[in-house]
Amino acid sequence: MALVCAMTLAVPHPDSVPMRARSGKVYKEAVMAQRAQQAASNWQPNTTVNWFQQPISHADPSLGTFAQRWFMDLSAYSGNNYAMLYINGEGPASESPDGFMRMYAQNISAAIFTLEHRFYGESMPAQLTNRSALQYLTVENVLEDLDTFRAFVQSTVLKKDNVSWFIVGGSYSGALSAWMKVKYPTTYKAAWSSSGVVNARFDYYAFDGHIMSVLPHVCAKAIRSVFDQVSAAYDDPTQRAAMMAKFGTPSYFTKADMAWMLADGSAMAVQYGSKNYLCDNIVPLSTTDPFTQYSTIIKALWGETFTSSCYYSTACLSNASYSSQWAAAGYSWVYQCCTQLAYWQTGYPGSLRLQAITTDYYIDQCRQSFGATTFPDTYAFNTKWGGATPNAENVIALQGSDDPWQTAGVQQSLGPLYPEVLAQCNQCGHCGDLMNPLESDPPSLVSQREQIVAYMNEWLGVSSSVSSQSKKMRII
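User: That's the sequence. What structure does it adopt?
Assistant: Structure tokens below.
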């Protein structure tokens, strides 16, 4: 179902912004908005660190365990049977979760828990340079991590046999929340899958297809002109160094690496509700120095180091001498894409990104970084977990109309027990429903959150007296 509005501001949840992009205005403004609401509501996240010994391999306990970091928030817990497991995805966890899901959980007096994802932050079964250990970084192990942890806190913290658990995640974690319901259909009463990318896409040309459909033509044309000029300058030995210097990009970036980074700078602007900022600053395109113009835009959005991030460089990802950059670049996420998920955004005639970005480019990058046989069998993965139609119930799929990732998610309701709700507005983007409600939110997003509350209340069996309090959840 689509919810339509004409407003133009939807702030992303900070957790949904990748590590490589957290030095720019998008992430900083989202954090500031969240912190302002925390102060206004006299609530602060719990930063007390807890540790759980998790099996390195759930299939082979003889390999031992590793310490996995976790956090909890019992500030509103009444001792009832409600508990939320927030799935922290491809980045570090440093405190108990905040956002609309926290507000909902506290509204029903639920206990709140989150577990740091293996191979991210401080939850490391092995160093990233230990390539052989990366084989234990799989969706299957992650799902078992979550349920093993759930059983642990249920028995040691909640000390209850019967708990009404619900799981929440956004983006990849949104997919994990749906896959948890596939694997453990009765253990969790409900799943909140925000922009859940449940369909592993190999040749993901639909990503740019969606971007082109929501970008104004004049804006897309200006961006593509920059990319074409970068391509020409890269091919000219007399221009390459000067061009790359304007972006602050290392000389070891290949032409395809450069194209991948530049395209992601625009794609994430659309994804995270900054389409207007991008277009307002790229049109009109400079006729004298388009490289500085575009570099200034993407550095403002994503930070000064974005254009040199190891995430985009085959040479950096494949050379252990650069390993000090790997964690911040999202090395573990690159591995997950290379071995299971792909989500490889490719160019095509008329696409935003250059056609130098192909599946062959990604395969080569993966094999140089992780071994000659590395390959993501997305067909087998989707067969196992359901692709765009997971075999699960009591899951709500949330999408934003501008978000290009919705083409890897559930795009229409799969039945009354797996509804899809689309917030449709200019700049409605990725995981917007997870963010704390703000006065600037478009009506479409407000309505989307109201539907989340209604479905979660129904599936969790929340009483009408508690449910009536949902309209009082504070906004700033």
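The first strand starts at residue 2 and ends at 4.
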